[in-house]
User: Fold this.
Amino acid sequence: MNVKIICASYTGTTFGIAEQIRNACGGEIIEIRSRDLLSRFVAFMARHSPGMTVRDSGTLPDNIDLSGSDLVVIGTPVWGGKPVPAIRKALAALTGCRGKKAVIFATCSGDPGTTLQVMEKELLAKEMIVAGQFSLTEKEIKDGTPVAALIAKVQETLRQG
Assistant:
């Protein structure tokens, strides 16, 4: 089974979950970054915040072809109750989507706002099937149980084909 795991991660939290999914289910991680003004400003401010490290990795979303994939997993941090700009651009760049299944997740400090609904709407517009949605807070990520549930959903969706 061919799994694409698409994520954006500024501090490494979302990428860490993507790695756990890949380690448990296989697949390829496509880390997305954005060079828009807001993303650059937030990264600049975070780099100058005590105790915060900011990743500067990933590729700019251009064209992400899913035609050879059996399942796509998409993860995003939450900014202002919505997906980060990099993931919004990645969703717009998806091709070969029709009928593909997706599992989506958001990492946040508390309230994910409309993040999952925004992602679901974009995927449904591309005629994808959203098989699962997960919102993971910092506390839940440390606990591990919701991350295990996310991985179990990915595995289940792969078995169902």
The first strand starts at residue 3 and ends at 7. Residues 45-50 have pLDDT under 50 and may be disordered. The helical segments are 13-25, 37-47, 85-93, 115-125, 138-143, 145-160.
